[in-house]
Amino acid sequence: MLEGKKILLGVSGGIAAYKMANVASMLVKLHADVHVVMTKNATHFITAQTFEVLTKNKVYLDTFDETPDDKVHVPHISLGTGVDCILIAPATANVIGKIANGIADDMLTTTVLPARCPILICPSMNGYMLENPIVQDNIAKLKRFGYQIIEPSEGYLACGYEGKGKLPKEEILVEEILLRVAHEHDLEGRHVVVSAGPTEEPLDPIRVITNHSSGKMGYALAKAAAYRGAKVTLVSGPTSLEPPLGVELKKIHTAEEMYQQVTSAAETADIVVMAAAVADYTPATVADQKIKKKDGDMSIPLKRTKDILLSLGEKKRPGQVICGFSMETEKLLENSAAKLEKKNADMICANSLTQEGAGYQVDTNILTLITRDGTEQLPMMSKLEASHRIFDKILQLNV
Ligand code: CTP
What's the 275 CA to ligand 1 centre distance in angstroms? Predict the structure, then answer.
């Protein structure tokens, strides 16, 4: 995902500096060209050699460090202006204070000054230090000047203190970088609403009617839209998945709750993708107490739920794109194309349930994208890749 991207990690002297080796390694595995600048104090916690082995690039500690390649370049300028994203983590109170006040007295602070790319700063220190009004003032000033602050997490701190100030998990730091550079921000300024997962229709306080949806397709769509710079609202039924970073999550249980949340979010949406497996029927009544078994069989009276996609299609505004999914066990293309018309959608992503590597629970999918301009059969690919193909297609639609 980071092929051709140059990422600069600025590591300052906090205990969490050692965690940045993992961040560097994760970025390298995503094919980024990773460069590291450390403060001298950071070397108390991790060596420059660790980063050099992991990144295969020289680590800079001093503004006057040179390599043969630097004969014509000034390292702090070529690094500061030549990367796609800078992450300063852990950012100590000292480094935050210096950057906020334009002080550039070491390699890290001089490299940040000329930079034009997104600069992410993750404060990491003892909770009392973090609460210090001067530190808070410096952080507020950095925000004002467009630096992007990654909030530290809460927990047990190395100093023995319990509270806010921990460096977030390495995966989160990598995600923060991916959000800025993994994809061209071609959905910037657009509001994308995605529905995901199953719905749960209660029968009594204990039992529900649900389905096998894992939510993986919807969560991948939300992530892809966030990577492309959209404002994303994810309306999700119960799943075990972590919501993607930078996405507003609305949790629901029933089809009716999903209808309420999706239709309300759709009022401002430019694109709505209904990837959820919404129940078509719900129990006609919900028992207050547990339904006790009796001799013989039983049947449950069901009533229809609202068809959310149909309702979105009816209320569609000019320029708004409505995309649905279709799961079929037979006549996939014929039945899916009929849904495009019936629900006034702009695209239906037809999803076979009978092919291996497609459908519920798995990380891959095999989709056919059906629009009024024709159909496009996608090969098996990850749900994230498939999501990007869906947004590529949506951006080509003339609605
Ligand atoms: N959908 C919806 N509201 C419902 C049921 C489905 O918005 N009450 C949406 C799904 O999220 C999906 C699309 O409609 O985007 C098609 O869902 P699918 O279950 O394949 O088809 P249905 O329209 O429910 O028709 P059928 O069950 O008869 O195949």
Answer: 9
Question: What is the position in ligand 1's atom list of the atom closest to the CA of 255?
Answer: 8
Which pLDDT tens digit goes with each residue over 339-373? Answer: 999 999 999 999 987 888 887 788 999 999 999 99
Instruction: Find, among 198, 253, 195, 255, the residue nearest to 225 by Cα.
Output: 195
pTM over 0.90: yes
Query: Catalytic site residue 122?
Result: no
Q: Is the pLDDT of residue 70 over 60?
A: no
Ligand 1 atom 4, closest CA: 307
What is the rounded distance in angstroms from the CA atom of residue 340 to the CA atom of residue 321? 12
Shortest-distance Cα residue to atom 8 of ligand 1: 307
CA atoms within 13 A on the CB side of 258: 32
**N residues, the chain:** 399
CA of 247 to the centre of ligand 1 (A): 24
**386 CB within 6 A, ligand 1:** no
The partner residues of 248 in beta bridges, in order of sequence, read: 233
Helix (H) or strand (E) holding 368, with range, is: strand 367-371
Neighbouring C-beta atoms of residue 145, cutoff 10 Å: 10
Retrieve residue 286's tokens. Answer: 């919900």
Q: Is any ligand 1 atom within 6 A of the Cβ of residue 276?
A: yes
How many Å apart are CA 83 and CA 35, to the nearest integer? 9
**Ligand 1 centroid vs 196 CA: distance in angstroms?**
12
- What is the DSSP code string of 288-312? SSPPPP-SS-----EEEPP-HHHHH
